[in-house]
Structures
1.
Amino acid sequence: MTSQQSPSPAEAKSPRPPAPTTVIALDDDLLREIFLRLHSLPTLVRAALSCRTFFHAVRSSPAFRRSFREARPPPLLGLFFDPDGPSIPAFAPLRRRSDPDLAAVVRGADFFLTHLPDDDDDAAALPEWVIYDCRDGYILLEHGSLEQYAVYNPLTRALDLIPQPPDEIFDDQNGDASCLGCYILSSQEGGEPLRLVYTCHVESRARAAVFSSESREWQILPWSEPVTPLPEDEHWLKVGSMVNELVYWIHKNQAYILVLNTVTLQFSQMDVPPNLVDQDLMFKVGETKDGRPCIVCPIDFELHAWVWRAGQDGIETWIFDKKFPLETIVEVTEGTFEEHCELKVLAIIGGFVYFCTMDMLRDAIYPCWFLSLCMETGELGTLFRRRFDGHAYPYIMAWPPSLIDNKVNPQLEGA
C-alpha cells in the first residue's frame, strides 16, 4: 500500500489563483464604454434593466446619455395617423425583424391609446381625440366634448389630463381668433414640470398661453405686435412646427415665418429663403442632427435643404445646404414617378426627413410609400406602405424616465 505524499512547504504556501473578473465587477466607467457600443436605445434599456449594477451605471451619468444620443439617435417606432373627423388616432409600427429589442418595445407599448378617457355621458358618442403634438415620447391630444387635453406616454402609460385654456385668451382681439396649435414644452433630461403652450391668432397678431403642471393653471400672455406687412387673409398662417424651443408658422404665401420663442414667450418674424418666396411649394421647418433649424422643400423628386447659420458676413440667415435627388425611389418602390405624383415632407427630426409619396392624388384608395432620408449621409430608407388617411406624426422613442437620475451629484455631471 503506497502512502500519499504531503505537499511541499513551497506548494502549501503558494497563493490561490485570482477569481475571474466578471462584467458585474467592472467599474461604472468601463461599463459605460461597453454600453456605448450597443447598437440601439432599446438594447441599452434591456441591458440596463438586467441588474442593479448596469442600471446605476446608465442612470447616474448625464454625460453618458449625451454621448449615447450622439452616437445612437433615438429610434423611430412608427407613425401616428390622425384622420379627419371623430376617431381614435391609428398607429402604424415600424417593423424591423433585425432588431428584436425594438420590436419588443412596440409590442409592449399602448399604441392603441386605451388609457384615454371616453365621454361616459353619451354612450353613442364617437371618439373625438385629435393629435396636436408628438415629441419626446409624449402625445398631446384634445377632446372637444370633454374640453380637455391629454398628454400621454404610450411606453410608460403616464397620463395627464389638462383643461382647455380659458376663453379670456380670445379677449381684446380684432376679428375672429383662430387656434394656431398647442405644443408640449419638455426636456430630454426630465425632472421639470410638464408645460404646454397654446397659441392663437387674429388678423395680424398672435397670442400664447402657458400651462404648468405645478400650478395647474393657464397663464395668458399679451397679444403680440401686428406683423408687417399686414395679412390680406384672416387665415394667414399654415400649421406650425416646433423645433427645440421655437415654434415656426409659415405664411400661407411664403412671405415670412412667424416665430414664437417658448423661453421668452415673444413673437418675432423671420425671412423665408428667397427661392421660396411667393412660390406655391409645400415645405417644413425642422432640425439638423446638431439641432440647427432647417427647411426642407420637395421640388419634383428632389428634396432641397436650407440651414439657418451665419453667412460670410457673420449674420445668421437661411443658407442653401444641399439637394437630394431621389430617382432611386422608383427602384425601391418598384413604381413610377407618375404613380407617386409628388412628395410631401411630414417632419424633420434630428437630421432625418420623414416624407411620403402622394399616390392618393391619382386615386384616393391608392396606398402611399412612407420613407426617411438621413440629411448627413443621404441614405434613403423605406418605412412602410399604407393609405394616407389624415395627418401623420412620427413617434420617436424617448430616453426612459426611469433611466434618468435628476438627483445626481453635481460633481458627477461630467462622469
Note: The chain has a mean pLDDT of 88.
2.
Amino acid sequence: MARKKIIIAGAGPAGLAAAYELCRLDQNNKFEISIYETENQIGGIAKTLNFKGSRFDLGGHRFYSKFPEINQFYQEFLGKEMLVKKRLSRIYYKNKFFNYPLNISNTVKNLGLIKSIELGLSWIKRQINPYPEEKNFKQWVANRFGDKLFEIFFKSYTEKTWGISTNRLSADWAAQRIQNFNFLKAVLNACFKINLGAKTIIDKFYYPKYGPGMLYEKMAEILKTKRVKIKLCHQIIGLKTKRNRIVEVVSTKGKEKTDYFISTLPLNDLARMLKQKNNLKFRSFITVNFVIKTNPFPDQWIYIHDPKVKVARIQNFRNWSQFMVKKSSQLTPIGMEYFCNEGDDFWSQQDKEILYLAKKELTKIGLVETNQILNGFVYRVKNAYPIYDLNYKKSVEKIRKIVAKYKNLYLCGRGGLFRYNNQDHSILTGFFVARNIVNNNKKLNVWAINNEEKYIEAK
C-alpha cells in the first residue's frame, strides 16, 4: 500500500509537534512527512540564534504549562537540561524602574504618595461608573484597573506592541492575557499575598540550558531518524486544490503533490492562497542583539513603557541561563525588541541605522555605557503577533468556514489559527492535528485551546 504524503507548512513549535506526534502514532509507517520551512533555521519565533559564541532568543520563552502532557513532553526531551529560574522583571517608566509584578512600597516610592492615592481613587471612580460595553482594550482594562493605572502601565507599552490605539484594539486580547485579575486583587496580592480566585503571575519557570531552540533542535534530530524531510528555505507560495482538497503545494523550490496539508502559515496568507480576500494583519518585530562586556542588570527582561524611546522590551539572556555564553566568559547577550510592520519605515532601515538607534536608547535608559558594547546584529521577524483589531473576529470566522470545506486541510500554531498562543498552546495544537489525521476525523478542536486561561500571564 502506498504511503500517504503529508506536507507541513512551517518548522516552528506547532509544525514540529505535529510531525513528532504523527511519527509517534504511525506504528505502521503509513505516512511520508515533509516539513517546508521558509527560513534557514527551525524553531519559528522560538528559535535560538548563535552569534560569536553567544546565544540569543527571539524574545524570552518561559517553559511552563497548565497542560500536564506538555510539561511531561518538556521533561521527556530536556530532563536535567531544564533549569528552574526565579522570575525577575521590571517596568521602566519616566526614568524609574518598577518591580513587576507590582510591589506596593516600590510603586509608592516611584510614583509618590499622592499619585498612588490617585490610582486608587481612579479605580473607585471607574467601579462606580464603568464603561457599559467592553469592546476595546482600553475599556476592558480601565473597568478593572482604573483610568490612571491604565495610562501608566498599559497604554504606552500596548500601543508600542500593536502599532494601533488601544481604542482600536479588541478587548479579546486583554481578556485572553489578563483574565480574572483586577486592581483589588493586584493590591491584595502585592500587600498581603492574598489570592481571591486569581492565579498569581508566574514567579518561577523552567528554561532550557541553551535556550528554547534546544528543544526544537532535539525534535528535528529525532524526526530525521524517522525519515521526516525538513526542507529549509522552502517558502510556500501557492496551493492547488481539487474537489475540496489540497492536492499540490507550490514552493519557491518547486511543486509537490500531497494527501494532507498541515498549515501553520499566517492565516491571512493561507486565505489568499485559497483565493479569499481578508483584512487580517500581523505585527512584526526586529530584535537588536548586543554582546556586552559584563552583566549590566539583574533582570531577565525589562518592559519599556516610556514613550520617549522606541524599544519595547529588553532581554538579558545571561540571566535566563549562564550557559547562553561560553564557559567562564563574563560576556552578556542582550536583546532589544522593536515592534513594527513589515515594510514600514523602521523595518526598511539599514541594519547599521537600527544598531545606532538601539545603542543610543540602551544608554539613554541608563542600563549600559556605550564602551561596554562589543558588537551586535539585527534580526527581523515577520508575522509574529496576530493583531486583534475590532473587526478581526469576523474575518477569522469567515476564513474558518472556507477552511472547513477542505477535507485534508488542518490548521495549527499561532499564525495558523490567528491566535496569540504561547508555545505550549502551539505545541498542543500540533498534537491535536496529528491525532485527528491518524484517527481520520477532526474531533479534537484546535480552536478551543487557549480559549480559557487558568493562569495569569499579563505580558
Note: Residues 196-200, 453-459 have pLDDT under 50 and may be disordered.
3.
Amino acid sequence: MSQLKRDFDAKFRNEAYRCRFRLPLNERLDGEIGCHLWTLYNRSSIAGKLYISSNFICFSSKVYRQVNLIIPFRDIIIVEKHTNNSNISDFDIQSALVITIKYEGGPFVLSNFTDRSFILGKLSSLLSEYNEKIISIIDLPPITISPPLYLQFNNNFTEEQQAYENIRIAAWHTHFAIYGRGSAMYRTNELYELLFQGIPNSLRNELWLLFSGAIYDKEVNLNIYRKYVYESSNVKNDHDTINEEIERDLYRALPDQEAYQQESGINALRRLLRVYACYNTDVGYCQAMNILGGVLLLYMNEEDAFWTLAALCERLLPDYYNTKVVGALIDQGVFSDYCKEYIPELYDKLEHLGIAACISLSWFLTLFVCVMPFESVLYVIDIFFYD
C-alpha cells in the first residue's frame, strides 16, 4: 500500500470518527478495537467498538444507534481491571475494564477485549500523559452575558402549550435519571425517539451545546469569548466592511420574532456576529449566519450560542459559510439528483421554470428556518445537532 493511500485512509478514519461523535477538528484517532459495553440501564452486554483518541474514549454499538458513549479524558478518574467479586454473569469479567469518572454517571464496564492488558496499559499511559491544552485568558474585565432571549420574549405559552411543555420536561428528566446526563450519557435509540418529541425550551441551551459538540471547544477555551468581545469592539478598518454587512442583515434575521423587534435582541445578535467575525477571520461573516445566530440566541446564552455557531460553521456544515458556499452547493447538487430520481415531474417543472437551483440553496444555508413554520424548524435543529 502506498504512503499516499495510507494517509488518505487515516484522514478518512479521523474525519468519520470526529463526525460520528461530534468531536473537535484537532482530534486524532489513535486506534479502535472490538469489545462489549455493559449497560446499567437494561443490564445488557452490547457488542461494538471502542475508539481511543488524544482526548476522548468513545464507544459505538455494532447495531446502529443502539448505544453510543463519549467519555472525555478530563472526566476520567481511573481505568482499572474489573474485580472478580461481581454478581454480574452476563459478561466476561476476566477481560473487563472499569472506567470511573468524576461526575454522576458510570462506572462504565467494557469487556471481551482480546488483550485486556494491552488496552489497560494504553489507556493508563494516555491518562498519565494527558495534558489537555486549555487556553485561558486572564486580566480581562468582566462582561455581561445575555441569557436566552426566549426568557424575556416569546414565552407566552397558552395553558395547553405549557401543559405539553411540562410533559416534555418530565419525559426528559426521566430519561436523564435512567441514561445519565452530560457528556458521558448513554446515547440510545430511546434518546433519538425522544428528540422527535422535541427538546423543551429550558433544556435547549444545555443539549444543543452538548449534541453539537460545541461544549468540548468551550471547555478548552476559557474566556476566549470575552477576549473577542473586547477585540471586536476595538477593531476598525479591516472589519468595517464586515460590520456594515452585519448591520444590513440584523433586522432581516427573524423579523417575526418579538426578540428581534427590540433593541436588546438586536444588540445581542450584533455582538454575536461581530465577535465571530473577529474570532474566525477566514469566515468572517456570510449571509444566513444572521438567521442561524438569531435562532441560537433565542434558546442559548450568548457565549454558548457563539461556540455553537462556531461548530456549525467550522465542523457541522463545512464550507457552507464563505464567499463560494461550496459545501452548500454540493449538498444542493445531491438534493437535485434525488429530486430528479424520486419526484421527476416536479423536478422537470422547476427545471423548466429555471428555478430548481435557486429555491433550495437558502434551505440548506438557513437549516430550513426561512421555509418552515418556526416550531417545526426547532424539531429539525434538535435532530440535526444530534444526528
Note: Residues 328 and 364 are 6 Å apart (CA to CA).
4.
Amino acid sequence: MSIDLSEYKKKLKEKKLPKFKAAAGGDMPGRIANLAQYTETTENNYFTYRNYHGTVNGYVERKEAHETNDGKKKFIPFSLTEDGKWESKAWPDNRCLYNEHLLKLHPDLPVVISEGEKAAAYGTANYKDYVHVSFQGGSKAPDKTNYQHLKDREVILFPDADDAGKRAMVHVAKILIEKEITYNIKIVDVEDLPDKFDIADAPMHQEINVPGYIAKANEFDPDKYSKQWKEIQKVEDKKAVESEVEKFLKMYIYIRSVMSFYELENKELLVKQQINDWNQSDMKGENLCNKLLDHEDLTKAHSVFTHAGMKPGIIEVKQGEFEAINKGIYYNTYYPSNIVAAPGDVTDILSYYKWLLGETNWYWIEQYIAYMIQFPGSKMRWAPVITSVEGGGKGLLAKLISAILGHHNCNTQLMYEQMVNQFSNVLMGLQFGIINELDLATKKNVKQLTNKMKKFMSDDTLTIELKGRPQIKIPFFCNFMIFSNDEDCLYLTKEARRYLIIAIKHSQDAINEKLDAGVKDKILDALEFGSKELGHLLHHFQKVKIDDPKAFQRNAPKTEDFFDLVEKGRPMIHRILDERLENNQAPFYHVDDAWVRGEPKYKKNKTTGCDERVKGEFDYFETRMNFSGLVVAQDLHEHIILDPLLKNEYCTRDLLIEWCKEKSTPWPNGNPTKQIVLPQGSYSRAYLIRDYEVEGQKISNWTEGQLGSHYYFHTFDRKKLDLQGRLDWVRNENKEKQTNYIEPKNKHGFNL
C-alpha cells in the first residue's frame, strides 16, 4: 500500500529566489579551463554544473584528503558574479542540480539522487537506466538547491552509508514533499553497506550490486524517519530565523537615546514589543529584537536627525558641531530625491502660481523653495502661511514641493495636534512639512496654541518624548509651510516675526477656470513618477537667484495680508472693546466737561468742636456717568460679566490686561500702570486709556489720591456709591474690633 505523503506537505512562505548569471560558452576559470573537456568523466576531480537547458552555471573542484594540507576532502566551487566575473564561491541559494540538463534529455527515466558529484558522475557512466543527479555542498546544504525540475518524477534517494548521509536524504525528501514537487519517492536501505559507502565506491566493492540496491529501494515513509525529520525542522527553523534576522538588519537600526529601533523605510521609532509582535510568525518563537541586538552587524547610533546637506546614513558628529547634542555616532535619515534636474519649459505652471498668489507673494514663495534646494539642511526662521477657500490650489503646490524634495523627506499632511502632542515623533525624519487645515482661531486658548507653534519655525533643536522612554533633544532642520481655509487661522500681533501671510483672494470659480484651461493637467503630468517636467521644475529652482539669503534668518516679510490677519485674529472681546471705545459706548461713554462730583458730608463734634466726616453719606451732583479715562482690569472684567450684551463672550482678566496694554498710554515714568488710591483707602493699578484734561490739567499729572477719587466717582453709579460708603463704615468699624479682619468680597471674588 502506498504512503499518502500529502499530509506531510507544508504551506511554505513563498521565497523570492535570487537570479544568477550563467557562464558564457568557453568562459571558464583559468585553473580548470585546460581540463574542462574531461569534466564528464571520473578520471579527474572537476565537475561542470549545467542547468536544465544545458547552460553552464558553474564548476566544482574536488580535492581528496591526500591532496590537502589538513588531510580533509575539500570542494571548491566556482560561480559567476553579477558583473560576469568568475569567483571561488558557491551560489548562496537556488542552485541547480548537478546533471540537471540530463533531466530534460531523459524525461521518462527514474532519478537517482546521491550525495556528491563524483557519485552522480559514476552512476551516469555505469547505470544508464537512471538519471543520476546530486546537490552541491554536501550533507549540510541540500536546502540550497532548487529541485523544481523533479516535478512529478520518480525519485530514488541513495544516501551515503552514515548518519549525515541518511539525514541529508531525509532532508531532500522533506523538501520534495513540503513543496509538492513529487510524492513518488523511494529511499535505498544502506544499513548493511560499508561505512560511508556511496555509488562512487562501487569499483572498490565489486561484491556490492548497486543496481540491485536501487531496484529494492523502499517507498519513503516519513514516520520511519521522524527523529531526523524533527531535527531537520529545528535546523530549518534556526536557519529561517537567521535569514529573517539578516533581512531585518537591513531594515532597522538601534537608537540608544530612546532605547528604540528606527525603521528605515517608514522613518518611524518602534519599541521592541512592536517589532517582536509584528514579526512573531517569521521568528519561530524567537525574540527578534534580542537576536538583532546580539548580532555584530546591527547598526547602532546615539540618536537620529535629518539634514539634507549631509550624507545619508551613519555620521560621526564632532563636539560642538550641532546645538544641544554631544559628539558620537548619529544616523541621518535624509535620502536624496531621485529627480534629475534638466532644462525645460515650466512657464505655464509658474505663471499660474504667480497669478494665484500675486506677483510679490510668489516672489517670496519661489525664493523659499529655491532656498531649500540651494541651501539643503539650512533652517529658515519663518514659514509662509497660505490661506484660501477650500480647494484653492494649495494642495497641488504642496505635492509639487514634496515631489521635488522627495516624498520620503516630506509630510504634506501634518496636523497641529500631532505636532504638539507630548509623545509625538511625527516630525522626525522630515526635511519639509506642511501644516494642513490649520484653524486655531476657533479655540479659546488661541494665543497659547499659536505660541506653541513658534518653536517649530525657529528652534534649532527638537525635543522628543516617547512613552516610557527618556526625553531627548535632536538637531532640527525641518522647514514648514502652513495651509488653511480660514483667513484668521492664527493669533498674531503686529510684533509677530515668524509668519509670511498670504491670502489667496481669487474665487473658487476663477481658480477652477484657470486650472481647467490646461494648467492642472500640466501640474498633474509633472507629478507623475519619473516625469521630465519635475526635473524641469527642479532645474528652475536650482537656477533661481537668491537675492538675500540672510532674509530667511531674519523676520518674515510683512504683507498687507499679515496686518489683515492680525486684526482678524484678535480675540472677539478685544474687537468689541475697540468698537465701544471708538464709538463712545459704555463702559467708555464720555461727555466733555460733564464730570460727576461727589463731596463727603461733615458735622461738628459737640465735644471737641472739630468737623468730622459723616460715615456713609455723600453729597452728589445729579449728572450722567462719564468715562474717567482710566481702566482697572478687574473692574472692567466685573463690568463685562454684568453686561447683558457681553457676559457670554469669552473673556479672562489676562485678555483684558492685554487689551489695556495695547490701548494705554504709558504714565510719565514710563510704566504701563500706576497705583491709585481710592476714597475708601484701598489701592488699584490703573491703565491710562484717555489722558483727559480736567479743569485745565491732564489727569496723567495727578497724584495717586486724585486719580483714585476721579476714577471712583466716574466709574460707579450712585446706588453703588452709597453702598460703598456704607461698606466703608462697616469695614472700618470691624477693623477696629477684629484682629484678624478679612475683607468682604462679592460673588466674583473682588473686594467690596
Note: Residues 541 and 565 are 29 Å apart (CA to CA).
